[in-house]
């Protein structure tokens, strides 16, 4: 009896330990619907989440499990992606048309992902059709665990600032323009947290600060086309985090934030107690668009000064600012060990891939391409086709070459663009922008080291100019006109991952591809099995589920 009792107690203790060891869960229910919004003072149809525009903030901590049950009340299929969340071993949750069948109207789907080994500022948005242009986006923050040191004191409060360009046209009107083979051209204005930002809402401050206190502002460019500059009237900003990495804490009066990028700054309320403008203005456009939002001091009085601080001009300012960003080598990230303990500069490059963006017409309609191929999504998400080993794939691998000739990028071919990548290879990607407008690129599933941006043409000799010590690890990088940018990363996250232009017109018209990163072991150590609730469609709809991966 004593032995049996002892065994029972041990079992209970073991079960209790397992329960305690599991990371916390956060549960959300989202009802996605249309609603009337007026970001620029003109009523238009927008996309709301639980009747909110922008959508609700997700406030999580490293390793939390996030469970979001999405009900699609739109009249079109819907998907969400989580910009910058790496989904380790789990591209099933990435929410791109190349990985997931969309949520049909009137249906629901539950996303379940873990913010594994990440910290920082991110956002989510819809990836289907042209929905992103009219809402459905919101902030997503990943806080550090209590036991992991953060390289700055806890702020008094933590604010999310979503800035972006905006069009007065509906998403269906914008999509119709693109489907007709034309560009949507320039935006109609800029918004801050969904507000008009034209001074008419000056009596309704976006944020309030206590004199003498320091606050964290997480600023994300959630727009679809325009790089922006952000600044706060009369206040300097100490940069502390960028795309999920702690950075060297330089102080700036203004910061360029390109489409898809997020950063965190510390702002101290050390000025005369009154109201001040935060300002977001367009970059690299002939006409400057500006939005303002009010920050109030608690107990202060007086409106903001009508003198709006001017934004920077030209590319040189932005390029020099990029070069001032440095990875904080001594700070911890999601784990206790310092960020700088990973010495990426000493790893041998096993593959170099040039990504050359271009624009042309196909059958009289505008298309954008990578190395001469303009991506189009097949009927069946490519990840599902690959996992189910469908006998008849509706795409081919490796339609582009790693080192394209100028001739090969001139003529555009429209078809799915998928590149095979060898698991755990250390890769160098060179983005080449021969066009006259800025480009911005994002890679799902990874962070990469942004080691260089320079003018002119890239050659192997340019590697001597790389920052191989403290380049910031991030997920989105800009490439200025007539310039190239170099990034380095290890393909150690098995799955199907989207490399895309964050400029949504270009993305929609083909400037994207997918990396297929497969582990030869077919092991749960490297990649999760397809979740039971994943919707099947296309050529895999009636196929039997393949044998599951095992350890």
Automatic annotation (TrEMBL):
This is L-ascorbate oxidase homolog. Residues 32-145, 158-299, 395-519 form the Plastocyanin-like domain. InterPro entries: Cu-oxidase-like_N, Cu-oxidase_2nd, Cu-oxidase_C, Cu-oxidase_fam, Cupredoxin, CuRO_2_AO-like. It comes from the Eukaryota. Keywords: Signal. Pfam families: Cu-oxidase, Cu-oxidase_2, Cu-oxidase_3. Belongs to the multicopper oxidase family. Residues 1-21 form the signal peptide. GO terms for molecular function: copper ion binding; oxidoreductase activity. Gene3D superfamilies: Cupredoxins - blue copper proteins (2.60.40.420).
């Amino acid at each position: 009896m004593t032995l049996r009792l002892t065994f029972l107690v041990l079992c209970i203790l073991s079960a209790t330990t397992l329960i305690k060891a599991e990371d916390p869960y956060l549960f959300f229910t989202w009802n996605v619907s249309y609603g009337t919004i007026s970001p620029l003072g003109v009523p238009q149809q927008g996309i709301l989440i639980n009747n909110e525009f922008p959508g609700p903030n997700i406030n999580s901590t490293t390793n939390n499990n996030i469970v979001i049950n999405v009900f699609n009340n739109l009249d079109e299929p819907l998907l969400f992606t989580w910009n910058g969340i790496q989904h380790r071993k789990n591209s099933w949750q990435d929410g791109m048309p190349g990985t997931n069948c969309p949520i049909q109207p009137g249906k629901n789907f539950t996303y379940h992902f873990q913010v594994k080994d990440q910290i920082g500022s991110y956002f989510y948005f819809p990836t289907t059709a042209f929905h992103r242009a009219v809402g459905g986006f919101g902030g997503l923050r990943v806080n550090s665990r209590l036991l992991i040191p953060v390289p700055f004191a806890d702020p008094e409060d933590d604010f999310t600032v979503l800035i972006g360009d905006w069009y007065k046209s509906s998403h269906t009107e914008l999509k119709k323009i693109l489907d007709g083979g034309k560009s949507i051209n320039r935006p109609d204005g800029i918004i801050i947290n969904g507000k008009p930002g034209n001074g008419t809402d000056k009596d309704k401050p976006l944020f309030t600060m206590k004199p003498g206190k320091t606050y964290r502002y997480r600023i994300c460019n959630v727009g679809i086309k325009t790089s922006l500059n952000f600044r706060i009237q009369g206040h300097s900003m100490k940069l502390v985090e960028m795309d999920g990495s702690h950075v060297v804490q330089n102080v700036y009066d203004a910061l360029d934030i390109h489409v898809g990028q997020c950063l965190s700054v510390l702002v101290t309320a050390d000025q005369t107690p009154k109201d001040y403008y935060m300002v977001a203005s367009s970059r690299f456009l002939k006409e400057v668009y500006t939005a303002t939002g009010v920050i109030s001091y608690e107990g202060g009085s007086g409106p903001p000064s009508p003198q709006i601080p001017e934004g920077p001009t030209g590319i040189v300012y932005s390029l020099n600012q990029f070069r001032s960003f440095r990875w904080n080598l001594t700070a911890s990230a999601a784990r206790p060990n310092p960020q700088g303990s990973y010495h990426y500069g000493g790893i041998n490059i096993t593959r170099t891939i040039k990504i050359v963006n271009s624009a042309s017409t196909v059958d009289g309609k505008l298309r954008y391409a990578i190395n001469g191929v303009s991506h189009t999504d097949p009927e069946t998400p490519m990840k599902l086709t690959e996992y189910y080993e469908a006998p008849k794939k509706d795409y081919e691998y490796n339609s582009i070459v790693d080192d394209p000739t100028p001739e090969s990028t001139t003529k555009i071919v429209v078809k799915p663009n998928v590149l095979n990548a060898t698991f755990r290879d250390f890769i160098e990607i060179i983005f080449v922008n021969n066009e006259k407008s800025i480009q911005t690129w994002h890679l799902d599933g990874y962070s990469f080291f942004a080691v260089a941006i320079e003018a002119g043409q890239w050659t192997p000799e340019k590697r001597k100019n790389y920052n191989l010590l403290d380049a910031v690890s991030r997920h989105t990088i800009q490439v200025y006109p007539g310039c190239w940018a170099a990034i380095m990363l290890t393909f150690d996250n098995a799955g199907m991952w989207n490399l895309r232009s964050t400029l949504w017109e270009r993305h929609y018209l083909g400037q994207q591809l997918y990396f297929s990163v497969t582990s030869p072991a077919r092991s749960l150590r490297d990649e999760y099995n397809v979740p039971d609730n994943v919707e099947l469609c296309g050529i895999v709809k009636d196929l039997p589920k393949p044998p599951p991966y095992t350890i």
